[in-house]
Amino acid sequence: MAVNLKDLEPATLPSAGLLRRLAALLYDGFLVVAIWMLIGFLVQLVVGPDTSELVDGTVQTDPVLDGVLFLAMIASTTAFYLWFWCRSGQTLGMLAWRLRVQDPNGHLLQPSRALLRLVLAWPAFFCLGLGYLWLLVDSNGDAAHDRLSKTRVVLLPKEFQPLQ
Hints:
It is a single chain. By secondary structure, the chain is mainly alpha-helical. The chain has one domain (15-155). The protein is built from six helices and four strands, in the order αββααβαααβ. It has helices at 18-47, 63-87, 92-96, 111-126, 130-133, 144-149; strands at 52-55, 58-61, 99-102, 152-155. A two-stranded antiparallel ribbon has the order 1-2. A two-stranded antiparallel sheet has the order 3-4. Strand 1 (52-55) and strand 2 form a beta hairpin. Helix 1 (18-47) packs across helix 2 (63-87) and helix 2 packs across helix 4.
């Protein structure tokens, strides 16, 4: 029997576990890298392929172009997560693993809260994953960036049908 979100009490859903979160993050990582590759391809179409040169065995690139590419990567990643988190609460990786990010009352995130969550998630991951490991000791099962941004990642029931 299919269940949609209106039939559930989103504020009472259980918190998602560490392995599911990391699996969804891996899925989303593949998508984000594909977006970065597309951006790199488009930049190469615009500026041409001869923006790098080999000097003494090392590749030298244009620092301005490097900066533009880096900013485009940050902007595209931010847009990816904010679009999905604010629109449905689920990225494609979260959809595959039945996860949903929401505020403590079960509502979708506002853009400001989603941006805060994203900014806090980067150090939570890159500081040896300690921010994610925090959920193993947290009484609510929240990661550090969830706790600080006042968000929750919940596990949806198997019967949940997102595309209704």
